[in-house]
Design a protein that fits this description.
- The protein has about 500 residues and is α/β, with parallel strands linked by helices.
- Helices cover about 35% and strands about 15% of the residues.
- It contains 18 helices and 17 strands.
- Helix 16 links the parallel strand 14 and strand 15.
- The radius of gyration is 28 Å and the shape is globular.
- About 5% of the residues have low confidence.
Amino acid sequence: MHHTLKIQEILLNIFGHCRLPTRESPASDLPALARTCHTFKEPALDVLWEKLVDQSSLARCLPEASHCRETLPGDKIEWGILRSYARRTRSIMNDKDTLDWESVGNFLNHPTSEPLFPNLHCLYTGRLTEIKIKHLLHMPFPSLISLDVGITHEEYLHLLQGSLESFFKFSPNIRRLSIDAPRWPDITFTNFFSAYICRWKDLQSVDCGRIALDADALAHLSHMPALTRLNCTPNATLPPADSPLLFPNLHHLTLSSEFLGPISQLLSQTRLPAITDFTVYIESYPSKERFSYFLASVQTSAVGRTIQGLRFREECGVQDGEEGVPFMAFSNLRRIYIDLGWEVDLSDRELLTLASAWPHLEQLVINEECGWDTPGGITPDGLLRLLQACRLLSDIALTIDTRGYTEFRESPASLGLSLPSTFSLDVLDSFIEEESVPAIAAFLAGIAPCPNFSFRAYKSWWFNTDRKDHEDRWYDAYNRANFTLNQHS
């Protein structure tokens, strides 16, 4: 054997390219490599057991007679067999309920105090069931760094509380925490979670979007210099702070709430000097006064100066160009995604005024889910002016106003525009009349020459028989543009 094949790092790299066994395709080269020689055994087993999707495979490593006993494993020898494999596991991904819980549940009845998975770093439970909570989440994981838990039903929350208490005790070094809870958990669970999250000292990412964090939990998180990502719900009864909370290195912030008020209050009490991506989810349309307070809070927290990505979902945002002007406070935007719950009617002047504050804009998406439901929008010529103002813009979802557009006048080339190599245009639910199709086809042909051009109109779930003719005309124009390009090529 060549001496290079005796270097563990090289073998791990080579074996890492081997196909792992699955339920659908159990064949794999790794078990065979592990049986080849002593040199190959350890690195092959390390790769084979590194990622575990089904703990039942551990039970199948024991003698067949062991599966018939009520208690598994039965002695220290069999427990040693399990640990010889489980100690190699770095991540568990239970995204499917395919576990043999009759065997796996008995892993808890071990004959020693040693944990079964001493080196596990990542645990992803998928959607929790009662069996998973009672068995998997009560096992000790002393080296756990990342915990991702999904809860299917509210009645599981009280069971999860006991599991989380064991994590606080046996997994003190968690860096990434994700709890996908049901819609707005009850106050008992949120108070419990806010109290216990303070036991972890080195969190880097916290994703608990529907769980409200109280003032103490937020203050605790603000003292974590490594925290870069936070997704939570502000507590509706957040008391005024004596001094603002500083999150010095927080880059990604997502806030969810039924109303805009708690989000505005939290922003007014925080300082976010490093924020780059900010997402807001609310469920009710805010009044103009509430929205003005929110924008003032954005300025107070310094979000407007550093943020590069802004997302507003559900019924939140601007209704027309006049109310949209305050968004110019976000002077460093690169990505903007606004989805409103009502009609939008923004003209060339209003969109170009907004975009004038965002010269580095790369994505502009307005009402992608809801549509505009209006014959207006940006004109083809206005779209070219927008591309002139924002040279990096490559992903656009806007309604195009084609009324009276019967003659192709300008193209990107005629204006000296060089479009990005990847360019996406979604015209949403734009109106278009038959007489405009030839001119729009020529316009699209002027845009389409970029190598990766993507065009879309009328999503399949916008079922409106009155618009079927408009959808057909848009795709007729797009097909004509492709035909023209193919002829020229």
